[in-house]
Amino acid sequence: MDQKTNAFQIKYNDYKQTLETLQAKIIELGHDKDEHDVVLSTLKNTDENRKCYRMINSALVETDVKTTIPILSTKRANLEEAIEKMKAELIKTAEEFEKWKKDNKIQVVKQ
Fold first, then answer.
1. Is residue 108 one of the residues assigned to a domain?
2. What is the mean pLDDT of residues 23-37?
3. Domain holding 58: CATH number?
4. N or C: which end of the chain has fewer CB within 10 A?
């Protein structure tokens, strides 16, 4: 019986860790998306021939506003898509977790 309880505890901890990891990544990507929004709104009212800089990995690259806006817009759209996929995965995992708890009659004891 102790080995079965231990297996349930490990599975429970795995579910909790997965949910926390997904939530943290969604928040992180949300902050990145917000930063892209700020930069895009700033560049929108800027002369398109004005030079600007953007970070690519750890290198600062000089470019102009005209070429930077489409790149940032694409990255922002990709971030939004990734966030939506992760939210869907979070919901699916949470539902799986609840079903697993119900099927195995798991009750959480708070201390």
1. no
2. 97
3. 1.10.287.370
4. C
Q: Which tokens in the block code for residue 96?
A: 């799986």
| Domain assignment of residue 110, yes or no | no
* SS3 at position 106: coil
Positions of E strands within the chain? 51-56, 59-64
pTM of the model as a whole: 0.86
Check the CA dihedral 11-13-16-22 and report its sign: negative
Q: What is the mean pLDDT of residues 29-35?
A: 97
Residue 18 inside a domain? The answer is yes
Q: Which domain holds residue 40?
A: 1-101
Q: Are 100 and 106 in contact (CB under 8 A)?
A: yes
DSSP state of 108: -
Question: What is the distance of C-alpha 22 from the center of its chain?
Answer: 7
Residue 29 CA, distance from chain mean position: 4
What number of CA atoms fall less than 13 Å from residue 56's CA on the CB side?
8
Please report which helix (H) or strand (E) contains residue 102, including its range. helix 65-103
**Structure tokens, 54:** 């953007």
